[in-house]
Amino acid sequence: MTMKNKKWLIWAAAVLVLGIGLWYYFKKSEAVKIQLTTVKPEMGDITESITATGTIQPVDTVAVGTQVSGTLNKIYVDFNSQVKKGQLLATLEPSLLKDQALQIAGNLANAKSNLAYNQNNYNRQLQLYKVGAISKADLQVAENQNNAARSQIMSINAQLSAANKNLSYTRIYSPIDGTVLSRNVSEGQTVAASFSTPTLFSIAKDLTKMQVRASIDEADIGNVKAGQKVTFTVDAFPDLNFSGEVTEIRLHPTVSANVVNYITIINADNAELKLKPGMTANISVITSDISKVMKIPAQAVNFKPDSLVASNYTINSPYTASQKKQWTGQKSTANKEMPKGEAAVWVLATDQSISRKKIKTGTSNDTDLQVISGLSVNDNVITGYKTLTKKTTGASKSPFLPQRSSGKKPSGGGGGPR
């Protein structure tokens, strides 16, 4: 063998040794340790709920208006005033309506005088007719005039009654006991009742009883029923949970941004008067509540041992190698392919091995899952894992790589290269 060939062999051997050292170093550096996250099944309650938003409003609100036009003469209440039924709230200027009533009263007096004249005339004509002095036609004319005068009095009496009634409408009274929520007018303002009744005041009957007007999506409304319990919060008191009850689901739909909603009325107690009209409520309607059942986190059925788990733990499974592959594969759909009401979870044993168990499941609220059978309260159900180390630094160093300087000067020397 020539000298040249020997040099090539030496270089090849050196490169091979260097490659093996590098491979060993990086392979060991990439060793990853994991720790499984486990929980024990526990007994507890599982509730299902739907969420929505709504507006708080009084149970009964009355809009107080006026049936006659006029100028507001005096207002006796303001915002937040407590009022009683029959209490005077405001008055309109009555002068014009008084004059109208007086005019009609004068017409009535004139009509009564006319009736007396026609009654006497009829009596005279009747006597003359009896002695044959006049014809029957003349008697009938007198009788007709008498009847017309009597009818005129009835008509003017009705006009006077209406005028007096309109005059009474100039005094506006509260129809209920309650609290004035809004005052829409001021003294001296003219209100016109020609086409529609103007609203002067809005009065809430009882602010200790409130209701939430919630909009619930058509996808959720099928699970909502009258009598279900409701919890909600408001921005003014984010740490407080208020309670209520569904009382009515209105069948008239509302459409907003192509989403169909149904108005749902929820009654709530407001004894402390913390809830104010117009507040926005964030609502949770409890559609199902199951108590004292075994439950596990819903994420447990989604766990599957991957290659990283398989490299750190022993997988015990009654399946063949090809079947095992579907449990440790990256795209496992095992639980999705199981019959409804069944699922599979992985359990960690004391010898650091994991086993797959089939369970029968019940209701779920996307957080907790009811376990009907297949587990005990002592099982360590795996929900996931966390990585302890990503690289093992300092555990193994390659002798073929240059070492990083510590930055310290060597003792007893000048510190520079010699």
From TrEMBL:
Its main location: other. The keyword Transmembrane applies. GO terms for cellular component: efflux pump complex. InterPro entries: Beta-barrel_YknX, MdtA-like_BSH, MdtA-like_C, MdtA-like_HH, RND_pump_MFP. Residues 102-170 form the Multidrug resistance protein MdtA-like alpha-helical hairpin domain. GO terms for molecular function: efflux transmembrane transporter activity. It is found in: Cell envelope. Pfam families: Beta-barrel_YknX, BSH_RND, HH_MFP_RND, RND-MFP_C. The chain crosses the membrane at residues 7-26. Keywords: Coiled coil, Membrane, Transmembrane, Transmembrane helix, Transport. Residues 61-198 form the Multidrug resistance protein MdtA-like barrel-sandwich hybrid domain. Residues 339-384 form the Multidrug resistance protein MdtA-like C-terminal permuted SH3 domain. Residues 139-166 form a coiled coil. Belongs to the membrane fusion protein (MFP) (TC 8.A.1) family. This is Efflux RND transporter periplasmic adaptor subunit. It comes from Kaistella flava.
